Protein: TetR family transcriptional regulator
Organism: Vibrio anguillarum
Amino acid sequence: LIHRDCPDLLERIKGGVNKGIRQQRDAKQTELNEYKDRNRELRSEVAELKAMLAKVQSQNATFIRKNMALSNARADNSNVTQLIYS
């Protein structure tokens, strides 16, 4: 009956019901987009940190090799005396 007599009233009623659902959906979509942006930033940060870690590991390995070479050279050279401070 209302469909035939008052279609504008029916549309207002339906619009009011769906409005809350639309607002919830839009809020969730906005929240999801914010999380996606944050996730993208964090993935970029992780990639940067991995690159920094690889560089530091390479430098550390180089220093270890140099330290071992210097220790071996000191052990081979008999006229080098180790000074111990107390």
Remarks:
- The helical segments are 2-5, 7-76.
- Residues 62 and 70 are 12 Å apart (CA to CA).
- The chain has a mean pLDDT of 85.
